[in-house]
Specification:
Blueprint (H helix, E strand, L loop, with lengths): L17 H10 L7 E7 L5 H6 L6 E7 L8 H14 L1
Parallel strand pairs: 1-2
Length: 88
C-alpha cells in the first residue's frame, strides 16, 4: 500500500496560470523522482491535458473531465486517482 505520498494541490479560477505553472514544474522535475498529475477539466474536452502531454520518464498524467471535483466528480475523481497511482 502506498503511504506518505507528498501531494500538492494547484487551484484557481480560469486564466490564473495553473497550467503554465504545472508545465514549468514538470520541466524542472528531478530525474530520479516519479510524478503524477491529475487534471480536473471543467469541460468535457481536455484542453489542459492536451497542453501538458509529455513523454518524459517518471511523469504520469490523468484527467477527470466534466465538472468540478468538489460538486460533481467525487467518484470519477477517486477512480481517476486510483488509476493514476497504479500507472505512476
Amino acid at each position: 500500500m502506498l503511504q506518505n505520498i507528498p501531494t500538492h494541490v494547484i487551484g484557481g479560477p480560469l486564466g490564473a496560470g495553473k497550467t503554465s505553472l504545472i508545465k514549468r514544474l514538470l520541466a524542472q522535475k528531478p530525474a530520479h523522482e516519479r510524478w503524477a498529475v491529475l487534471i480536473n477539466e471543467f469541460g468535457q474536452i481536455g484542453l489542459d491535458a492536451a497542453l501538458l502531454t509529455t513523454t518524459a520518464d517518471g511523469i504520469a498524467l490523468g484527467e477527470v473531465a466534466g465538472g468540478c471535483l468538489c460538486c460533481v466528480n467525487g467518484v470519477p475523481f477517486q477512480i481517476g486517482l486510483g488509476r493514476l497511482l497504479r500507472k505512476a
